[in-house]
Design goal:
Length: 386
């Protein structure tokens, strides 16, 4: 049985590795001429680690962990709003959150696949879904490719989603624009975590290699770019507490990534058509406020691989994909909604609401210390299908 996976992001690589381990003949089609991650850093949450454990890759990612201690949400002047201890996360969910570069995690997953799995520099142009009596067919700039299963993991602007669901409006602008940077960790004491100030958020995540992954978000009109992205970040965040301005100043302006954030606000009616499955950002692109984009894509990949066996008939593959939709579509839509709501909470444009939010979080942290972790149960307590 042959599977073609379109897209070599986290969802595509995870699905490809899972299918390969189950005995499928897998080809990964990627339009880029080389494997490279989009973005700079990520946080692999306990649910993402459980997904990787099904592939035997979880421990390799755990070894990338940098710090085991407190993280905090602070105001722009440095006052702590709430704290979270890594030990408390481990007690509740069985694992810590592992901050890492996207390239290091991608190397772990892609290393599960033979080098000849990849067809790089090939661009998908469309797809014919096939079904119980006809194999699906991928249309590319190098000609058509047939398989028993096609996996659409081609990102937020998915060409295959448009072909499979032409009636769907696609991804829409969330209202948030974001910057990402990898810089040397500055000397001095500071708490990892997030800084909240009005409509703006700045994240600080130290990595094991002596660098820090930082990200920033703010409301903005879509499509705006700046001649010097570092200077724009300093204009917006330069008066915030240590180490925010120091991290920005340490960045090479040419390496600061700036992207508008799009989301699948209207859920897809299904995560498959015929013998084609759709996953990751192509299915449920979400804002980054829960840090779940890559984690949900990896959940998708291992769930799909668990459901489709290498010796199934075409009818059985289609039936398995219906099960995949039943398991993943409600969760994907829920994660999109939760991420959007978290964005509204963290990026408050109302000073009274901001003050009330901060006071409520401080009181909740004193009265019910694990309240914030309880709220994350629906997000990270997921278990892989058997």
């Amino acid at each position: 049985m042959k599977a073609i996976v379109v897209g070599a992001g986290f969802g595509g690589l995870t699905a490809a590795a899972g299918l390969f381990q189950r005995g499928w003949d897998v080809t990964v089609v990627e339009r880029a001429p080389e494997l490279r991650p989009v973005g700079s850093g990520l946080a692999v949450a306990p649910n993402g680690l459980r997904a990787l454990d099904t592939l035997g890759a979880g421990d390799a990612v755990r070894k990338l962990a940098a710090f085991q201690g407190d993280a905090a949400v602070t105001r722009s002047d440095g006052r702590v709003i709430a704290r979270t201890a890594s030990k408390a996360i481990i007690r509740r969910f069985g694992d810590a959150v592992i901050p890492a570069t996207r390239s290091s995690v991608m190397d772990v997953i892609s290393g599960l696949l033979p080098a000849d799995t990849f067809r790089l520099g090939v661009e998908a142009k469309g797809v014919e879904a096939g079904g119980a009596s006809r194999r699906p067919r991928l249309l590319t700039d190098s000609g058509p490719l047939e398989a028993d299963l096609i996996v659409a993991a081609d990102g937020v602007n998915s060409v295959l989603r448009k072909a499979l669901f032409p009636e769907h409006p696609g991804a829409v602008y969330s209202g948030t624009t974001a910057w990402r940077l990898l810089v040397p960790t500055p000397k001095g004491d500071f708490l990892p975590g997030e800084v909240w100030g009005g409509s703006q958020v700045f994240g600080i995540t130290p990595l094991a290699d002596g660098r820090t992954y930082a990200y920033a978000a703010d409301y903005a009109e879509p499509g705006i770019t700046y001649p010097d992205e570092r200077a724009e970040l300093l204009r917006r965040f330069g008066a915030w507490h240590f180490p925010v301005p120091q991290l920005i100043s340490a960045a090479d302006p040419e390496t600061v990534l700036h992207n508008d954030i799009y989301e699948i606000a209207q859920p897809l009616s299904a995560y498959h058509r015929g013998a084609v499955a759709i996953l990751g950002d192509a299915a449920h692109a979400m804002t980054p406020h829960l840090g779940q984009g890559a984690n949900q894509a990896m959940e998708d990949g291992v769930t799909l691989a668990a459901l489709v066996g290498p010796s199934q008939s075409s009818t059985e593959v289609v039936t398995a994909l219906a099960q995949y939709t039943a398991l993943r579509a409600p969760r994907g839509a829920d994660m999109v909604r939760r991420s959007h709501r978290m964005g509204a909470l963290t990026q408050s444009t109302s000073r009274p609401k901001e003050a009330l939010r901060n006071l409520g979080m401080r009181l909740a942290g004193r009265l019910v210390p694990d309240l914030a972790l309880r709220a994350m149960d629906p997000v990270v307590a997921w278990q892989p299908p058997q």
